[in-house]
Design brief:
2 copies of one chain form a homodimer.
Chain A (H helix, E strand, L loop, with lengths): L10 H6 L14 E3 L4 E3 L7 E2 L2 H8 L5 E3 L10 H11 L5 E3 L9 H9 L3 E6 L1 E2 L1 H8 L7 E3 L2 H10 L6 E6 L23 H7 L2 E6 L19 E4 L20 H15 L8 E4 L4 H16 L4 E8 L1 H8 L3 E9 L2 H9 L3 E3 L2 H5 L13 E4 L3 E3 L4 E2 L10 E2 L3 H4 L4 E5 L3 E2 L2 E2 L1 E2 L14 E3 L4 E3 L4 H7 L7 E2 L1 H12 L7 E10 L5 E8 L2
Parallel strand pairs in A: 3-11, 4-5, 4-9, 5-6, 6-8, 8-27, 9-10, 10-11, 12-13, 12-16, 13-14, 14-15, 16-20, 17-23, 20-24, 25-26
Antiparallel strand pairs in A: 7-19, 17-18, 21-22, 24-25, 27-28
């Protein structure tokens, strides 16, 4: 079958897994019966354990769904510790349902797939060796890729039923009251993990820092926690700000960031009390710095900044240029420290951030989102998941979610080396063009034809070079030539959900 | 049928309502599938309303269960406003499920019962004219009395299914982010209301103070809220500290409070890091002041104070004599103000406070609870619900919940005027004697025979006059004579749940 974007979906799998094809970015007003955990009652006196393997043995059985958070990114020490214990116990056929998978987890996941420990995965993304192996078909069943808001929705509506959540925390008391702000492994917001804590049947905290009872503030509460396991080290928060969240010095990125800033300041949305999310990715992060100067020059301030929080956003908060930071995740240690010290940096869970199926998330209130792309097609559909070789090397993240902003700007270089970004046909559709408003490249910008208001606002701005997206695609082709279509096998290695749970695209096994 | 306390329960009603008789205070480790709300999705853009009647009309239908909180106690203006709108619309056959009912609501509830608007009630308690009318049989179905922890349990496990919660808040933004701390009607902790916000299908906030978006900290979150209604005035927080929470000057109360303090300081639990709940009621509140001096004299401090928070407890926090106040409710304006200003005064919801069926509540960690009583029998069973005339004039409150503390002290005058407190047979059993350890009266103390350790600790303390509880009952009888047994009709006007949902007693209609 084909969905509304014309993406080919595997009929058999779609039927077997009861998925519906993507139709629209509009969510409407459906009614959902929420799900809830199955709770084993205890008085809380005997939660503190030091033998991880015993805790795993007690809680995890063959065929279960287990989860982790990725707040510590490549500084995470918990995932590998728990997965090793699971493999040592010979537990098989697990579904892995972390908020995302980071590079530091790759070797372990590959091993767990190959020995049958893990047979299903749902994640925001994967990179490096794991993406490569999965793209070459090592996992029997397709990975289900979900946005951060989509995962929150799936957990709240019961599409993901987590049996056991293993959550690394930088502090906890003996009963499981924990937050992300204090301790050697402090990483700030527990935003993604809060979903697991609220909805998993069993919640196991792992911490290197057992503090006096009662521990406050308690982002995760004792009422949610079954076991607290003392470990040597939860992680290294200095490694959070690596990979996708590193600050750019690339002059091309900075050119793009300046153009994004021009788009923002010349739009109808740049007015006192506006709101924004600038996300991760080189140029996207740099935008925040330019935005600061524009706000100072124009004597206006923002009501809130949203999303993964970065040092430049914290600077805006401290200068009074933004009233509140709504923080689902901290992209660097400075942002994590700030959450502890600044009461206007509010921790939010992934549902509050972006679940499309609640009574109104933050992204639904967002004016401006600045997002990145691996590829964008001439219908403005965006790929942030697979590379030009068809191999999985990215994450849905909050991309689909933040793209519901009143003005969504994709910033990306026209070409990366010999690889075009703006193309006629993207390898994988992740975010529908319907929700993308402006593409900014180092060469010029393109405005979605469904936004005549923005075309009018930007077409005569001297600093903005406005093209059609077809012109930008041609320009890219003129630089790097036409790409050869990729060769795939018939096997589906991934299904990409839109945030509402419909399938926006499938990913097939690459042919070598 | 009779339950384990020998209380007579109405077979027909018990069977019809699927209730089980009380057996034990032990909760064990049962497994419960939690319930969850049915959510109508919206983007949050159109929540703010100014026509309460329209909002009521949209949300409330005949036969539904509606709820309110009682944090503003006799200063509440919301309950009557909403109930009037409901009656104006001619809606009938509602179940009223507030966290409790206060005097200011009495006239309205009586009217709503008499005209068929309300046909079922579950509450923590009722007093004054409402208690009198209900005790005389105006409500067709029995009131289900639940403790604060029991209500949290019933909501989490689905015994109470709230269709629409009407929650008065001293501030909210246009999307429903709200807390109890700022604004003219600020009352501090939203502890009881947080259950309704999390579990009701529809959540309607009423506020006199619409603040900028996004409002933080958000005790109630936009993801939970359907409508935000602007009203003229939510309530008068100066009226919170009236009735059951007024500070005593009664010399008898102060004598009792001093004796309670002696019990505490001479017990094994009075050591560095101990925890306590002192509750409401004249003598109970005064205990906190004596405890302060004892802590100073003995150079020790408490890890936490729990429950309804009072000014004397805030003083201990500010002096560093207690590390944390765990705050489900503020009993006076000073306590409410303190929650805003002191990060060590932690707002907790009713589940965290006292739900017996979660993974460990605060009361399960409590060392010492000081509670009051209307009557106590020679098996230490306590009545806090009906007067000596059999009329409902009290509330279960947190009584059953806090009584699970390691040492539970009941403080009460031996007699009140011509009415004995210590009796052979109490009118209504609310808290089982199994969980009561010490009775303190102005005449002397009695220790539960199931606590030989405490008998040993207290019997030789010069300041403590230790009696058997039978001796205290005789003493009371010698002062006021023997009470005539009350006359009741066959009609059951109330069923009292133990915190685990079993029925600990029934209340019958009084005969005039």
């Amino acid at each position: 079958m084909e969905n509304k974007l014309g993406r080919n979906l595997p009929d058999k799998l779609m039927n077997e897994l009861h998925f519906k094809p993507f139709e629209t970015t509009k969510i409407g007003n459906p009614v959902f019966q929420r799900t809830a955990p199955k709770v084993q009652v205890q008085n809380g006196h005997d939660k503190l354990k030091d033998d991880l393997k015993q805790v795993v043995k007690k809680n995890v059985k063959d065929g279960m769904t287990i989860s982790f958070h990725h707040h510590l990114r490549n500084g995470d020490y918990i995932f590998n510790l728990v997965m090793k214990a699971i493999m040592d116990l010979g537990i098989k056929d697990l579904t892995l349902a972390p908020s995302s998978l980071t590079g530091v987890m790759n070797d372990m996941v590959i091993k767990a797939i190959k020995n049958g420990t893990v047979t299903n995965i749902t994640t925001s993304g994967m990179r490096g060796s794991l993406g490569d192996e999965v793209s070459h078909g090592i996992l029997k069943n397709p990975v289900i890729f979900r946005s951060h808001g989509g995962r929150a929705r799936a957990i709240e509506n019961g599409d993901i039923k987590i049996d056991v959540a293993f959550l690394g925390v930088p502090n906890s008391d003996r009963c499981g009251n924990a937050n992300g702000m204090e301790g050697p492994a402090a990483f700030g917001s527990l935003g993604y993990a809060l979903m697991d804590a609220a909805y998993a049947n069993k919640v196991v905290l792992l911490t290197d820092n057992v503090v006096d009872y009662p521990n406050t503030p308690a982002s995760i509460r004792q009422t949610q926690v079954d076991d607290v396991v003392k470990v040597d080290q939860v992680g290294d928060p200095n490694k959070i700000g690596s990979g996708a969240t590193r600050f750019t010095k690339d002059p091309k990125d900075l050119t793009i960031a300046r153009a994004v800033n021009q788009v923002i300041v010349n739009s109808q949305y740049f007015k006192d009390g506006f709101s924004f999310q600038t996300g991760s990715g080189g140029a996207a992060l740099a935008v925040t710095r330019y935005l600061r100067q524009a706000m100072l020059d124009n004597h206006l301030h923002a009501s809130f900044g949203l999303g993964g929080i970065t040092k430049p956003m914290v600077d805006l908060l401290e200068e009074g240029l933004v009233d509140k930071l709504m923080d689902v995740q901290d992209f660097d240690k400075a942002a994590a420290d700030s959450m502890k010290n600044n009461k206007n940096q509010q921790e939010i869970d992934a549902s509050w951030y972006a679940d499309p199926d609640n009574k109104g998330s933050m992204v639904a209130q967002l004016d401006i989102a600045v997002l990145s792309a691996l590829e964008i097609d001439t219908d403005f559909n965006v790929n942030v998941l697979t590379g030009s070789d068809g191999v999985i090397r990215g994450a849905v993240g909050g991309h689909q979610d933040a793209a519901t902003a009143k003005m969504t700007i994709i910033c990306a270089p026209l070409v990366r080396g010999r690889i075009p970004t703006v193309v006629d046909h993207i390898n994988t559709a992740v975010t529908p063009g319907q929700s993308i408003d402006v593409l900014v490249t180092e060469f010029g910008i393109a405005i979605n034809p469904n936004r005549p208001d923005l075309i009018k606002q930007f077409q005569d701005v001297p600093s903005l070079h406005v093209y059609t997206i077809e012109e930008l695609a041609k320009k890219a082709e003129s630089i790097v030539g036409k790409e050869e279509p990729l060769q795939y096998t018939d096997k589906t290695v991934g299904l990409v959900e839109y945030r509402d749970g419909t399938i926006i695209d499938s990913i097939r096994q690459v042919k070598d």
